Amino acid sequence: MVVLAALLLLPIMLMLGRPADISAKGEQHARTRHETVATLIVDADAKPGGHRIAATGKSDVRAEWQLPDGSTQTGLVRANKGLKSGAEVEIWLDQGGRVVGPPVSSADAGLAAVMIAAVGWLTVAGLLASCQVGLHHLLNRRRYRSWG
User: Secondary structure of 12-62 in the HEC alphabet?
Assistant: First the structure.
């Protein structure tokens, strides 16, 4: 019965992680975000103005960039460590001029959909299996008690 329930849940989990939904969000991001170039104001290894993120080998560094209206804005951008002041890095901006990540690609959308479906199904299947094991244990205890 647990196996049957887990198999019936598989299509439901696949519906939860539809790549079309994730891809639509990526298309919306592609319409509302644009790529530009930021110029570093300080070195990427410098402590003032940013902090180093050791796991990725990147730093949040003070930089400046030009907005679509022609004005200049400064803020923190992610840059490879070792870049010097004056180096240029590509960044993505939203409509408000804030630094954001790049739009979701169709490959990323497909991978995210598969991961959502797999993790969801494994979680539910694990919970069903745990319930089955617990029920089996309780029934065995009851049976052993009635023998005694």
Answer: HHHHHCCHHHHHHHHHHHHHHCEEEEEEECCCCCCCCCCCEECCCCEEEEE
